[in-house]
Specification:
The structure is a single chain. By secondary structure, this protein is an alpha+beta fold. It has 2 domains: about 150 residues, Jelly Rolls; about 110 residues, Arc Repressor Mutant, subunit A (Orthogonal Bundle). The strands form 2 sheets. It has a 6-stranded antiparallel beta sheet with strand order 1-7-2-5-8-9, with helices on one face. A 3-stranded antiparallel beta sheet has the order 4-3-6, with helices on one face. Helix 1 packs across helix 3, helix 2 runs antiparallel to helix 3 and helix 5 crosses helix 6. The chain is globular and about 60 Å long.
Length: about 290
């Protein structure tokens, strides 16, 4: 699977592109594009990689991805069985930085949106009241046209800009510095790890997939992703563990082994290092709210 530059083209009657995607599962790999991307998921679960940030996604997730920020999503494995009760639905908006003119967002009245767009360089995840307010507006975009659709998009951006219910994803200073010749290797690595992280995955077998020796692969991965192999694998496993603890309320010991760990004590240490809580305390804290 080759990334990485996705081409987005609005129609001749639109200044920005919008689409409703209904698919059995997510089909695009690790990619980036020069447009801003605003996405609302209404049906779908899985894991996402935004720059150097790994997290879970699910119904209601609202994301704003800035230009040229690499991102990757993979559904939970049940989606690839193409069961009729598992499918994705998303509303996706793409707009160029100058889609309303080179200086439009430089107007003093739009300083909040201008600040928001600058922050989206790290990727933004919206939640709480602002997500609830924006979701129906995203739905309405599908039925609108012309000035009404444009006004709704600006209303959405202003709502998000005026809210503090958003979190930056990629780390400060993250840059897309991956040359195209390395993109295929990175995509192979991400595809494999996102699919097999709960298994007994070794550094050597992943290095072999991209025809590198383990030492060279470690340097390559650290340089291109900002993470070591163990960091990447652990973040995938801990993210999945959080999901199992919260959504399925499984016992900690079962979560440990279902996420690929063979030692409960090691799992507890890694989980606490990542979240600040033991797995049990994390589960209790959320379910007591």
């Amino acid at each position: 699977m080759h990334p990485i530059l996705e081409k987005v083209q609005p129609t001749s009657r639109q200044s920005f592109a919008i689409k409703e995607e209904i698919l059995p599962y997510i089909r695009i790999g690790w990619h980036f594009h020069p447009e801003y991307e605003l996405t609302l998921f209404t049906h779908s679960t899985g894991r996402r990689l935004t720059g150097d940030h790994i997290g879970n996604f699910g119904p209601g997730d609202l994301l704003l991805i800035g230009p040229n920020l690499p991102h990757y999503m993979r559904n939970d494995e049940l989606y690839y069985e193409e069961r009729p009760d598992h499918y994705i639905r998303a509303i996706v908006v793409h707009f160029a930085e100058d889609f309303l003119g080179a200086d439009f967002f430089s107007r003093p009245e739009l300083w909040e949106i201008r600040k928001l767009l600058a922050q989206s360089a790290r990727g933004l995840h919206m939640h709480g009241a602002v997500q609830a307010a924006v979701a129906p507006l995203m739905e309405s975009l599908l039925a609108q046209d012309g000035y009404e659709r444009l006004r709704t998009l600006l209303d959405i951006l202003q709502l998000i800009a005026q809210s503090d219910e958003r979190s930056a994803l990629a780390s400060v200073g993250y840059e897309n510095a991956i040359p195209e010749k390395d993109a295929r290797r990175i995509n192979i690595v991400y595809d494999y790890l996102f699919q097999h992280f709960a298994e007994d995955v070794s550094l050597g077998e992943v290095a072999a997939l991209v025809r590198m020796n383990p030492s060279a692969f470690c340097k390559f991965l650290k340089k291109r992703s900002g993470k070591t192999f163990s960091q990447l694998l652990n973040e995938l496993r801990i993210g999945h563990a959080c999901k199992l603890l919260l959504e399925e309320r499984l016992p900690v010991s079962e979560v440990c082994y279902r996420c690929g760990y063979n030692s409960l004590s090691y799992f507890n240490r890694k989980f606490k290092a990542a979240t600040g809580y033991s797995p049990l305390r994390y589960q209790q804290k959320v379910w007591s709210v």
